[in-house]
Design a protein that fits this description.
By secondary structure, the chain is an alpha/beta fold. The protein is built from eleven helices and eight strands. A six-stranded mixed beta sheet has the order 4-3-5-2-1-6, sandwiched between helices. It has a two-stranded antiparallel ribbon with strand order 7-8. Strand 1 and strand 2 form a beta hairpin.
């Protein structure tokens, strides 16, 4: 069965297997019930890779702040539409759109269509949650893409987004996200591929296929140094142009990893032998924290 989000990668000269796991960029607790094999695979590898290195994400956020803001929403919307949006944002998201920009509009739509925030939501999306586990275990961290490549794609999407989209009803999109969560929890990669089809051959190549090629090439390079656990959006895995097939074309054996045992969200614990310890020198009157046993 191909119903798995976790796949092992071996052969083609690798001394130890690496793994790739399909994520979903949500904080909904329902998508965090991973199999024990996911946690074991992170422990068994020496490196952890995700789409973009977190350091690059932070730097990009800082640079975007430095560039200044985009056009305010109220300057690109007519008064009637802006007043409608103002009422909707205050009611549903407790936001005042007076200071919001055109670039903010696309992110706001994602808020409207995603499940309502819940008290038991996880503190971060799946990718960053797994990253935090790998970081605490002292894994070498890598990014598969350059932040500039991603921002160029999504900046264009944000710029072309019509803010009036925020006013209309989003029931269909909400139902789509709920269905996607259901499929993700069932680990049905083929259905994920069907639901994530992007209209237009050029658009699909830009948003999905081109990025798949970049990430597969980077993985090919990384995995020959140390074994890696790779976490990328699940839509990048399946299909004839997906990462799984691209790795097979490079000579790797890529197989699904199955397990019937799922752990409750947030229940995984790892005893970190390299946890930071505090050393105190009372004679000289100082203390210092350092990794490993004191």
């Amino acid at each position: 069965s191909t119903n798995s989000l976790l796949w092992s990668i071996s052969g083609n000269g690798l001394k130890k297997p690496s793994f790739i796991f399909g994520t979903i960029h949500l904080q909904d607790k329902r998508v965090f019930h991973f199999t024990d094999s996911v946690y074991y695979s992170i422990q068994a590898t020496e490196g952890f890779a995700l789409e973009i290195h977190p350091d690059s994400m932070l730097m990009n956020m800082f640079l975007n702040e430095e560039k200044g803001k985009a056009l305010p929403l109220k300057e690109v919307m007519n008064k009637k539409d802006f007043e409608k949006l103002k009422g909707k944002l205050k009611k549903e998201l407790k936001l005042d759109p007076e200071e919001l920009t055109v670039k903010d509009a696309y992110s706001l739509k994602q808020k409207f269509i995603r499940p309502e925030a819940s008290e038991d939501d996880m503190p971060s999306i799946v990718d960053l949650y797994l990253y935090s586990i790998a970081r605490d275990q002292g894994k070498s961290i890598a990014g598969l893409e350059k932040i500039s490549d991603q921002t160029e794609i999504f900046d264009n999407i944000e710029e072309e987004f019509d803010p009036k989209e925020l006013i209309r009803d989003h029931t269909l999109e909400k139902n789509f996200v709920e269905r996607m969560i259901e499929i993700y929890v069932n680990q049905e990669l083929d259905k994920i591929m069907q639901m994530q089809r992007i209209p237009g051959e050029q658009e699909e190549d830009l948003i999905l296929n081109k990025r798949n090629r970049v990430m597969a090439d980077k993985m090919d390079s990384l995995m020959h140094s140390i074994p890696y656990f790779v976490a990328v959006g699940a839509a990048h895995l399946p299909g004839p142009k997906g990462i799984i097939e691209l790795l097979r074309q490079k000579g790797y054996t890529v197989q699904p990893v199955h397990s019937d045992r799922k752990l409750p969200a947030g229940s995984y614990q790892y005893k970190n032998e390299n946890a930071w310890q505090e050393f105190t020198d009372r004679l000289n009157g100082y203390s210092i924290s350092m990794p490993g046993k004191v």
